[in-house]
């Protein structure tokens, strides 16, 4: 029933940009906060950015502030992560996460690979 499908990953040069998308289905998208996480090779999965269900507030991991932008379009049932000024440390699989605090619901996509040449 629930599905989150990430897309937009790829190989980019340092300083380059990518736009990731997360298409949602099977649940009430507008009732969930959306998050992006990433997992680099050999490291634990870490939280990157969040946006509230109405899209009226965002938050970011300190190291990506000013460079990454999270957004959403509830009509399109899609969340986005714009990655600018990419550094090699951004190389990771990026995962979309849907979260509803009341009821503690959590849904995950399968991830999309971002590789930044070093």
What descriptors fit this protein?
53% strand; mainly beta; globular; 118 residues; four-stranded antiparallel sheet; seven-stranded mixed sheet
Average residue pLDDT: 97
For the secondary structure, the number of strands is 11
Helix content: under 10%
Question: Ranges with pLDDT <50 over ≥5 residues?
Answer: none
Please indicate the percent range of residues in DSSP E strands (runs of 2 or more): over 45%
Q: What Rg, in angstroms, do the CA atoms define? A: 14 Å
Kindly, what is the distance between the CA atoms of the first and last residues, rounded to a whole number of angstroms? 39 Å
Q: Helix count, per DSSP?
A: 0
Q: N-to-C SSE series? A: EEEEEEEEEEE
What is the makeup of the main sheet?
Answer: 7 strands, mixed
Main structural class:
mainly beta
Shape: globular
Explain this structure.
This protein has 118 residues and is mostly beta strands. Helices cover 0% and strands 53% of the residues. It has no helices and eleven strands. The mean pLDDT is 97.
Show the helix and strand layout.
Blueprint: E1 3-7, E2 10-12, E3 18-25, E4 33-39, E5 46-51, E6 58-60, E7 68-73, E8 78-83, E9 92-100, E10 105-108, E11 112-116
Parallel strand pairs: 2-11
Antiparallel strand pairs: 1-3, 3-8, 4-5, 4-9, 5-6, 7-8, 9-10, 9-11
Summarize the structure.
The protein has strands spanning 3-7, 10-12, 18-25, 33-39, 46-51, 58-60, 68-73, 78-83, 92-100, 105-108, 112-116. With 118 residues, it is an all-beta fold.
């Amino acid at each position: 029933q629930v599905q989150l499908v990430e897309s937009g990953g790829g190989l980019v040069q340092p300083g380059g940009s990518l736009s990731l998308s997360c298409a949602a289905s099977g649940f009430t998208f507008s009732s969930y906060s959306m998050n992006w996480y990433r997992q680099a090779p050999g490291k634990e999965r870490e939280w990157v950015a969040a946006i509230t269900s109405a899209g009226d507030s965002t938050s970011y991991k300190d190291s990506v502030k000013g460079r990454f932008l999270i957004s959403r379009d509830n009509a399109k049932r899609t969340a986005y992560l714009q990655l600018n000024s990419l550094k090699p440390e951004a190389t990771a699989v990026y995962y979309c996460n849907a979260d509803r605090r009341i009821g503690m619901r959590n849904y995950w996509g399968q991830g999309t690979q971002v590789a930044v040449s070093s």
